[in-house]
Design brief:
Elements: E1 23-26, E2 29-32, H1 44-62, H2 67-78, E3 82-83, E4 87-89, E5 92-98, E6 106-110, E7 118-121, E8 132-139, E9 145-152, E10 158-164, E11 169-178, E12 184-185, E13 189-194, E14 212-217, E15 226-229, E16 238-243, E17 249-255, E18 262-267, E19 276-279, E20 286-292, E21 295-300, E22 308-313, E23 323-326, E24 332-339, E25 342-349, E26 352-358, E27 364-368, E28 375-380, E29 387-394, E30 397-405, E31 410-416, E32 426-434, E33 440-448, E34 459-462, H3 480-484, E35 488-492, H4 502-506, H5 514-529, E36 538-543, H6 545-556, E37 563-567, H7 586-589, H8 596-605, E38 619-625, H9 634-646, E39 653-658, H10 669-686
Parallel strand pairs: 34-35, 34-36, 36-37, 37-38, 38-39
Antiparallel strand pairs: 1-2, 3-5, 4-5, 5-6, 6-7, 8-9, 9-10, 10-11, 12-13, 13-14, 14-15, 16-17, 17-18, 18-19, 20-21, 21-22, 22-23, 24-25, 25-26, 26-27, 28-29, 29-30, 30-31, 32-33, 33-35
Length: 693
């Protein structure tokens, strides 16, 4: 029987999840781990559990009467040509395009902007179901080759292949066990980062250790690749290489976590030169922008929480001799490009972008005028180019590509997409609210014009709050049906993110992580107080670190939310660091092993360890992918099992486990549409909406 749009109180018979008698001891505190067995993602028992859970979940979703029509509407909205900003390489132009519903975007080449585009690489031909995605790509500086990496089924593991650009033929070169790596060309070869081959059956769960930088020469086997950087005494460090466009310098970035890095360089023009340290330690971030006439330009938050641009003489690299070109300001210096003989600097002001041009002394030349409050990406170009391309978008502004005349400071629309809805019917505004400790927090609110703020509107609150990542205005067609049916969409810019620089980030890390949850809860309370919605009409959503956010907040304040969607979430805060790359997140979270104080703090908010029987939790649909080797699905498996065991039967506690899918990157459009249709169906149904499409 199909269910009409009213909040479900149907009692669900969940699959029975076996319990073990596993107990872990932390600083003399015993912690029960009854579902530890679900960490074995390749066992027959876990596979059977996944199938049983999906049967229950899809049985529930299939009964939502409007779900097929919602999927049709999302499919219709998704079916429009999507373009990436063009970029220039070896005197040719390249860009990505998706015709509408292609699972993966296709790479095209243009000899000139007026020529007929030619397909260079079509990832849709790499698999029948679109689950093989392009991950990284790099053109050789001599114009001979294109090296690209692919990811299968959403995994972080990559394989690198090489194409002859003249013949468009694939060469015999193939490199495996690449992860968290770019591709950096030097001559007829390139640098990449890789790990040792993992233990069979543990490819998607074992801890990633001993990453190395290799050099691969075209035509040779991977076994012949030379290690050019490794640090065996520190197995939990990552290293990656970057080569300047003139191939004068190679840079190696070394990290211990997601925050802070060391930076080394070598002058490739000098025979037998050795790596020198540009910056050591892991307290600050150092990113190479470019080099020019022996000067290296770095973007750094060293002595500048909001970042600054410095110039380093490659012959005199001591930090005391660094020259500041763009000093720190009250706004975050987010990115810098050296293009068209100018410095193009992108700043973040109250979570929205502003772009300015400077000369190489740091003198401001002009503002780049943007259409409205929103987000910019691009400005890719060589130092001597006269033009650059950038993409602008916002919540009600579909991605639009502009061709920028650098000398004239003139932007013209290059590609404007047509989406089948009227943007003029909607409004997006920024407001500020006060968190628990008095901190002012920004939020973006988007809704249909004419909505009455009477406290009865369905509302989706989204957040992240971690790893110095900023939530800027963005466009997503899957939100439109919710907005068209009277829903309000809100993004809260929580501490832990990068909206106001490193100080804002650190205010939501380790022993201050509760600030992030308090900020999110305060956002919900503000929206209710101002009559945008009410607790019975309020849903929350977040992915990865945002999945942790949703999990923690739904447990701390179950009375405040009607629906919760923790997506690919970090939900076991006591063991997260034991899987794949989880150890690198310790700079944000701390670990359960470093001190009793940190263990107690983590256990106090860890979603897996704070589910209580007899509590009425919101309608919940946990979402994950079976190939997620970033945040392993065991997080979601164990949390869902725990939530179901405690469920009092009033509202659903479901888990949706996508197959041949990972953390999200490279997911084929077909799977994206399916996931978004299921999520929004669950949300709208449990908010009591009667949507029309």
């Amino acid at each position: 029987m199909l269910m009409t749009a009213c909040k479900s109180t149907i009692k669900i018979k969940y699959p029975e999840t076996a319990k073990d008698n596993v107990v872990e001891k932390y600083f003399n505190t015993e912690v029960a781990e009854p579902y530890r067995w679900l960490e074995n993602d390749t066992s027959i028992a876990t596979e059977s559990w996944v199938k049983a859970q999906n049967i229950i979940t899809y049985d529930y979703l299939n009964k939502i009467s409007f779900r097929p029509d919602l999927k049709k509407r999302i499919t219709q909205l998704t079916d429009y040509p999507k373009y990436g900003s063009p970029f220039k390489k070896n005197n040719k132009y390249y860009y990505f395009k998706n015709n509408g519903l292609q699972n993966q975007s296709v790479l095209y080449e243009l000899v000139s902007m007026d020529s007929e585009p030619q397909v260079i690489l079509d990832p849709n031909k790499l698999s029948k179901d679109g689950t093989v995605a392009l991950s990284q790509f790099a053109f050789s500086n001599n114009g001979k080759y294109l090296a690209y990496s692919i990811a299968r089924s959403g995994s972080d593991w990559n394989e690198i292949y090489v194409m002859n650009l003249e013949t468009k033929e694939l060469l015999q070169d193939q490199i495996k066990w690449v992860k968290f790596s770019g591709i950096a060309w030097q001559g007829d070869g390139f640098y990449y980062s890789a790990y040792n081959e993992p233990v069979e059956g543990k490819e998607f769960s074992n801890k990633n250790e001993y990453q190395k930088v290799f050099y691969h020469k075209i035509g040779e086997s991977q076994k012949q690749d030379v290690i050019i950087y490794e640090n065996p005494q520190f197995p939990l460090r990552n290293c990656s290489a970057h080569v300047s466009s003139d191939e004068k310098f190679i840079y190696v970035t070394v990290t211990e976590s997601t925050t802070g890095n060391s930076l080394y360089f070598k002058d490739l023009s000098k025979k037998d030169s050795q790596f020198q340290a540009l910056a050591t330690g892991f307290e600050n971030d150092y990113a190479v922008v470019d080099n020019l006439k022996g000067k290296i330009y770095l973007l750094t938050n060293w002595q500048a929480s909001n970042q600054r641009l410095v110039e380093v003489d490659s012959e005199n690299t001591e930090q005391k001799n660094w020259k500041t070109i763009l000093p720190e300001t009250k706004n975050v210096l987010q990115s810098v490009k050296l293009t068209g003989g100018k410095i193009i600097a992108q700043y973040l002001e109250d979570a929205a972008n502003h772009v300015y041009a400077f000369d190489f002394t740091g003198k401001k030349l002009f503002d780049v005028k943007l259409p409205t409050v929103g987000t910019v990406s691009g400005f890719n170009g060589d130092k001597d180019d006269t033009e650059a391309f950038y993409t602008f978008t916002s919540f009600t502004f579909p991605p639009t590509i502009y061709r920028f005349d650098i000398a004239q400071n003139k932007s013209d629309v290059f590609k404007k997409v047509e989406v089948s809805f009227n943007t003029e019917d909607f409004v997006s505004e920024q407001l500020f609210y006060t968190s628990k400790d008095g901190t002012k927090i920004p939020m973006f609110i988007t809704y249909k014009k004419g909505i009455k703020m009477d406290g009865k509107n369905p509302l989706m609150l989204y957040g992240y709050g971690g790893f110095n990542i900023s939530l800027n205005p963005s466009f997503n067609v899957a939100r439109i049906p919710f907005l068209e049916n009277g829903g309000i969409y809100v993004v809260a810019n929580l501490r832990g993110g990068g909206e106001y620089g490193e100080a804002w980030h650190l205010a939501g890390t380790k022993m201050k992580k509760q600030n992030v949850f308090d900020d999110f809860i305060a956002a919900a309370e503000f929206l209710i107080k101002e009559k945008y919605t009410s607790s019975k009409n309020l849903a929350i959503d977040g992915g990865s670190n945002g999945g942790l956010l949703v999990g923690a907040c739904m447990l701390q304040r179950p009375d405040l939310f009607a629906v919760a969607i923790p997506e690919v979430g970090v939900l076991d805060m006591l063991r997260y660091h034991k899987f794949t790359i989880g150890w690198a997140w310790a700079s944000d979270y701390g670990t359960s092993e470093e001190s009793k104080e940190m263990f107690d703090y983590l256990k106090n908010y860890s979603p897996l360890h704070n589910v209580k029987s007899g509590v009425k939790y919101p309608a919940t649909m946990v979402m994950t992918g079976d190939h997620d080797d970033r945040v392993v699905p065991a997080h979601s498996f164990k949390f869902a099992a725990t939530l179901q065991d405690a469920n009092n039967g009033n509202y659903p506690s479901l888990i949706r486990i996508d197959t041949k899918a990972g953390h999200g990157a490279g997911k084929p459009i077909g799977k994206v549409i399916d996931a978004q249709s299921d999520m929004w169906s669950f949300v709208m149904f449990n908010l009591g909406m009667n949507p029309k499409f």
